[in-house]
Design goal:
Helix content: 25-40%
Distance between the termini: 48 Å
Structural class: alpha/beta
Strand content: 15-25%
Radius of gyration: 26 Å
C-alpha cells in the first residue's frame, strides 16, 4: 500500500479534543464523586480534524475545511494543524461561533466525565458562503472528498449539496460519515459509513441480524443514491453493501480495546485514501478495518502510521502453506477453502494458464495479481488440455511438476487443474471476486468475466513483461540446439 500523493479534502465539524489523565484514590468529602489526581494532559485535533490527522499520518495529504472560533481554543487548534505535516489549514474563523472543544477526564482507562463547549445551531450564511468558496477553490487537485458530520451545524443542506455536486463534477469519490437518519440528505455520495446505531436509526424496518442489516442498508441505498453503505459494528467488524455488487463482511481486528474515541474517523480516513488510491471497496473495507483495530488499542483520538497498518494487515495473513497444502485436486476440494476465506472477509482472485515453463513474465503477473487481492487461486490446464491448445510436444513439464512449481510461489495461495479448453465451468463454480488476465486481452474477451461481474466482482488486466513467453523459450532452445 502506498497512499503518498493522495490528497483528500476533509469538510466537517472541526473540534479540539482535550484529554486529562489521572488516577482515582478516594471519594470527595464534599460530594459522592471521585477525586481524580491529575497526571498528564494532551490536546489533539478532533472531529473532521482527526480524519485529516489520520490521512496525514498514513502518508496522504489532507486539506481541512471547517469553522473555528476566534478564541483561545481556536488558536490552540490552529497550532495543532500547523504542527501536523501533510495537513493544509483551510478553516474559516467565525466571528459568531466558539471553537468546539471536548474535555475528557480519564482515570486509568475509564472516562470519568466529558465537558463539551459548543454551539450546535446552523452556521451563519456568511460562514456558509466562506466554506463553499474554500471547497470550490481547493477541491480541484484533490482525489476524494470526505464529509465528516458531527451534527454541530457546519454541514447545512446548501453546504452539503454544493460540496457533493462539486466533487461529482470533478469525478471524485465522496465519502460521508453521517449523523442524520435521512440518508437522502447526502444524496449522490459514493460511500456512507454509518455505525450500527446510525444505520438502525435510518432503517425503516428491523436491523438486528446480519441479514436484516444487509437488507436495511440495501434499502437505504436508493434514497442515498450511493454506490455503497459501510456499516461499522464495533467488535462484530464491518458490513459493506454495494449497489451494483454483493454484500461483504469482515470481522474486527482489535485484540484489546482501550479507547474507541475517533475510531470512526480512522475508518473513513483510510477508506478515502484506499478508494483514492484505486482499491475496490471490499479491499478498502478490509484495510480500514485493520486500521481501526490498531487505533482502538491506543488512548485518545489516536492515529496510526503505515508501518502499524502494514503490520496489522500482515497479522491477519496466515503463514504460507507448504507446497502440498496449496494443491487441491478438484473444485469440490477448493470450495470449502474459498468459503472459509469469504467468511473472513477476504477478497479472492483467480487466474489461469498453462504455466508450462515458468519465466519472469509468469512470476511478475502472479505477484501483481496477488497484490490486488487477499488470496489468489491459480488454475492450470491439464496435460491433455495443453496439447489441444499448444500442439504436440507440449507441455514440456507434466501437470504434477507444473502444479508443484506454481504452488511454491509465495504469491499463490491455492492451485488446481482443469481439463476443459477454457476455465469457464471452474470460474462459475468457484465464484472468485477478481478475475486476472494479461493486458493482451480486452475485458470483454476474458473467459468468465461476465460471470464474475454479474455477482459484483471485477476483471483486472495485468501488464505483461515484453518478450517473455514459453513459446519463445522453446524456440530459442531449439535454435541453439540446431
Amino acid at each position: 500500500m502506498d497512499f503518498g500523493g493522495r490528497r483528500i479534502l476533509c469538510l466537517g465539524d472541526v473540534m479540539l479534543d482535550r484529554f486529562h489523565y489521572g488516577r482515582i484514590d478516594r471519594i470527595s468529602p464534599e460530594a459522592p464523586v471521585p477525586v481524580v489526581r491529575m497526571a498528564d494532559s494532551r490536546a489533539m485535533l478532533g472531529g473532521a480534524g482527526n480524519v485529516a490527522r489520520n490521512i496525514a499520518s498514513l502518508g496522504g495529504e489532507a486539506v481541512l475545511v471547517g469553522v473555528v472560533g476566534q478564541d483561545a481554543a481556536g488558536r490552540e487548534l490552529a497550532g495543532l494543524i500547523a504542527g501536523t505535516p501533510g495537513l493544509t489549514d483551510a478553516t474559516v474563523a467565525s466571528a459568531t461561533r466558539p471553537t468546539i472543544a471536548k474535555t475528557r477526564i480519564i482515570a486509568g482507562h475509564q472516562h470519568v466525565v466529558r465537558l463539551d463547549e459548543e454551539v450546535t445551531g446552523p452556521i451563519t450564511d456568511a460562514d456558509a458562503a466562506a466554506i463553499r468558496a474554500r471547497v470550490e477553490a481547493l477541491l480541484p487537485g484533490c482525489h476524494a472528498l470526505v464529509l465528516s458530520d458531527y451534527a454541530k451545524g457546519l454541514l447545512r443542506a446548501d453546504v452539503v449539496r454544493h460540496a457533493i455536486d462539486a466533487a461529482r463534477r470533478l469525478g471524485l469519490p465522496v465519502l460521508v460519515d453521517p449523523k442524520r437518519s435521512d440518508f437522502g440528505f447526502y444524496a449522490g455520495a459514493t460511500v456512507l459509513t454509518p455505525n450500527l446505531k446510525e444505520l438502525r436509526a435510518a432503517a425503516q424496518g428491523p436491523a438486528d441480524t446480519e441479514e436484516e442489516l444487509a437488507a436495511a442498508a440495501r434499502a437505504l441505498l436508493g434514497p442515498a443514491r450511493a454506490d455503497a453503505i459501510l456499516v461499522t459494528r464495533s467488535e462484530k467488524g464491518m458490513l459493506l453493501v454495494e449497489a451494483e455488487g454483493g454484500t461483504h463482511t469482515v470481522r474486527a481486528h482489535a485484540k484489546e480495546v482501550f479507547d474507541v474515541s475517533g475510531a470512526g474517523d480512522t475508518v473513513i480516513a483510510v477508506m478515502a485514501l484506499a478508494v483514492a488510491a484505486g482499491f475496490p471497496l471490499p479491499r478498502a473495507m478490509r484495510i480500514a478495518n485493520a486500521a481501526a483495530g490498531v487505533v482502538v488499542g491506543k488512548l485518545g483520538t489516536a492515529t496510526l502510521d503505515m508501518g502499524e497498518l502494514t503490520a496489522a494487515m500482515d497479522a491477519e495473513t496466515p503463514e504460507p502453506a507448504d507446497i502440498a497444502g496449496k494443491i487441491v485436486s478438484s473444485a469440490e476440494q477448493a470450495i470449502p477453502v474459498l468459503d472459509a476465506w469469504r467468511r473472513r472477509g477476504l477478497e479472492i482472485g483467480f487466474t489461469n494458464g498453462c504455466f508450462d515453463i515458468l519465466h519472469r513474465g509468469h512470476v511478475t503477473m502472479l505477484q501483481a495479481a496477488r497484490a490486488a487481492c487477499d488470496r489468489l487461486v491459480v488454475a492450470l490446464n491439464t496435460d491433455d488440455s495443453v496439447r489441444r491448445l499448444k500442439g504436440d510436444g507440449r507441455p514440456v513439464n507434466a501437470l504434477e511438476d507444473r502444479l508443484a512449481v506454481i504452488a511454491a510461489l509465495q504469491s499463490v495461495d491455492l492451485v488446481l487443474a482443469f481439463g476443459e479448453d477454457t476455465p469457464l465451468e471452474l470460474i462459475t463454480r468457484l465464484q472468485p471476486d477478481v478475475l486476472f488476465k494479461g493486458a493482451d486481452y480486452r475485458p470483454e474477451e476474458v473467459v468468465g468475466g461476465d460471470v464474475v461481474q454479474a455477482r459484483g466482482g471485477r476483471v483486472a488486466l495485468i501488464d505483461l513483461v515484453p518478450g517473455r513467453s514459453t513459446t519463445g523459450i522453446i524456440a530459442r532452445s531449439r535454435a541453439g540446439a540446431g
